[in-house]
Amino acid sequence: MKTVQVNIVTPDGPVYDSEVAMVIAKTVSGEIGVLPGHIPLVAPLDISAIKIKEADGSNNVVAVSGGFIEVRPEKISILAPAAEVAETIDIARAKAAKKRAEERLQSKSDDIDFKRAELALKRAINRINVHEGNI
Ligand code: ATP
């Protein structure tokens, strides 16, 4: 079976590195499925789940907080500000972050940075969905 190397890297270090059969990523302009030998492309990613089909048929999911995907025929590189493999997600932390962001968004205070709170909420919901396999 043909495989392609996938690397997911954040400023804190590598999060995922494997030879895989397929990657599905959500770019800001839509979902893409990438197989080995794909034509080169670079695209910005949504706060979303990266779905990976391993060479042995098993599936893996990684939460990414945006970033970029760079596809080359033999290698896929994902550079993200933060990324977590599903099993490593601290669900209590993500739920607390969701609650905090929701409270901020409901606040009437002028001091609230709504865009920032919306992004924090999106990251938290994404982590919860990835952890729960709800993707
Ligand atoms: P929080 O408010 O809980 O810090 P956040 O969305 O602001 O959430 P980020 O700034 O995106 O957090 O991430 C900071 C670091 O913490 C990154 O290394 C990220 O992978 C990690 N991280 C954030 N939330 C979780 C989580 N629920 N489980 C595991 N790692 C997490």
Structure, described:
By secondary structure, the chain is of the alpha+beta class. The chain has two domains: 4-86, ATP Synthase, domain 1; 90-132, ATP synthase delta/epsilon subunit, C-terminal domain (Single alpha-helices involved in coiled-coils or other helix-helix interfaces, Up-down Bundle), CATH 1.20.5. Helices cover 25% and strands 44% of the residues. It is built from two helices and nine strands. The protein has helices at residues 91-106, 114-131, and strands at 4-10, 13-27, 30-34, 41-44, 47-54, 59-65, 68-72, 75-79, 83-85. Strands 1, 2, 3, 4, 5, 6, 7, 8 and 9 form a nine-stranded mixed sheet that branches. Strand 1 (4-10) and strand 2 (13-27) form a beta hairpin. The radius of gyration is 16 Å and the shape is elongated. The two termini are 26 Å apart. The mean pLDDT is 95. Residues 12, 65, 82, 84, 88-90, 93-94, 97, 120, 123, 127 line the site of adenosine-5'-triphosphate.
The largest pleated sheet is described as:
9 strands, mixed
Q: Categorize the overall geometry.
A: elongated
Average pLDDT, rounded to a whole number, is 95
Task: Identify low-pLDDT runs.
Answer: none
Bound molecules: adenosine-5'-triphosphate
What's the CATH H-level homologous superfamily of the largest domain?
Answer: F0F1 ATP synthase delta/epsilon subunit, N-terminal
* Secondary-structure element pattern, one letter each: EEEEEEEEEHH
- Give the distance, in angstroms, between the N- and C-terminal Cα atoms: 26 Å
What's the tally of helices? 2
CATH class label of the largest domain? Mainly Beta
